[in-house]
């Protein structure tokens, strides 16, 4: 973004960057440089071709982005704020990149790291951190999205282990995953299973014709008489609290990531409005345009303060699930409004892939509903405020 000497950065009017540590700023800058060279120039093409850039995976691994907030097993062990900043930079390029890193690290790897057996951890986590193995997280079902407690996928115990039957839908990374963390109903409640690709009875089918997250691999997981041994079960994952804990990890990344898309849209709108001339002067000189830019900047900068506050609480071990819902609900909603407003400033050019604005808006429509819809997070906060659940 071009600025006049002494002009503040519209995407950081409150100097939130000054509240970061030197290490956090260095991590953010490193991720941003990598993406500026190897991702940002090509993001529009990937979106248009519905192509996930698998060549980036080794680069992400080399930088330590995969499972970066986890300790041991080849993971970087960074703090939560650094992970959030990485998510912000990834989604500033395209939500598909942040989604890949989020599912790999905060869902699949985190499930193994927190709930897996020592053998499962040793087998999968180092390879996943190195990018040589990709994971996915099978919770959502065709008829059970917001209500995972009603899942239809079952796991029946046999003399040899377990047999899984069911279907999972809208699974990021599913078609390219080497291992799936699958959640199923057993006679003792919901349990998690580690299902490697190639297991008999396990198949995936990619979902096409998407208008959002086009550069992301989205798949259906099909389990039909899928036989796994006893060692496949995640021993420490009992009940629905286990997958929900994983979702909380991923939602934290979304709190930051959505602001990356918003930052990209605001920066694009500011530059465009200053360069585009109508009625003999720059569009940015009109009061209505300035009002739009101010509203966008207000929401982005407030969102950054919220994300940083939640990050500091997470690093202190004090972050509650309802606070994550607060961040996800507010920041994704604000980011989507910023993207839509930016599109109006760009006019007809706003629908072109020459600019990232409508691409971000389309992607954010998915971010708005996955890992908890706005309605679900509203009810989470409603219960926190009133003490009364309203889900049923």
Explained architecture:
This protein is an alpha+beta fold and about 400 residues long. The protein folds into three domains: about 10-130, Orthogonal Bundle (Butyryl-Coa Dehydrogenase, subunit A, domain 1), CATH 1.10.540.10; about 135-240, Beta Barrel (Butyryl-CoA Dehydrogenase, subunit A, domain 2), CATH 2.40.110.10; about 240-385, Butyryl-CoA Dehydrogenase, subunit A, domain 3, CATH 1.20.140.10. Helix content is about 50%, strand content about 15%. The chain has eleven helices and ten strands. The chain has helices at about 20-40, 45-50, 55-65, 80-95, 95-115, 120-130, 240-275, 285-315, 320-345, 355-370, 375-385, and strands at about 135-140, 155, 160-170, 180-185, 190-195, 200-205, 220-230, 235-240, 275-280, 280. The strands form three sheets. Strands 1-4-5-8 form a four-stranded mixed β-sheet. It has a four-stranded antiparallel β-sheet with strand order 2-3-7-6, with helices on one face. A two-stranded antiparallel ribbon has the order 9-10. The longest helix has about 35 residues, at about 240-275. It is globular and about 80 Å long. The termini are far apart. The mean pLDDT is about 95.
Summarize the structure.
The chain has 392 residues and is an alpha+beta fold. Helices cover 50% and strands 16% of the residues. The mean pLDDT is 96.
Beta-strand residue fraction: 15-25%
| Name of the CATH homologous superfamily of the largest domain | Butyryl-CoA Dehydrogenase, subunit A, domain 3
Top-tier CATH class of the largest domain? Mainly Alpha
Helicity, in percent? 40-55%
CATH architecture descriptor text of the largest domain: Up-down Bundle
> What distance lies between the first and last C-alpha atoms, to the nearest angstrom?
48 Å
Largest sheet, if any? 4 strands, mixed
Shape verdict: globular
Mean pLDDT: 96
Q: Supply the number of helical segments.
A: 11
Structural class: alpha+beta
Runs in which pLDDT lies below 50 for 5 or more consecutive residues are none
What's the arrangement of strands in the largest beta sheet?
Answer: 1-4-5-8
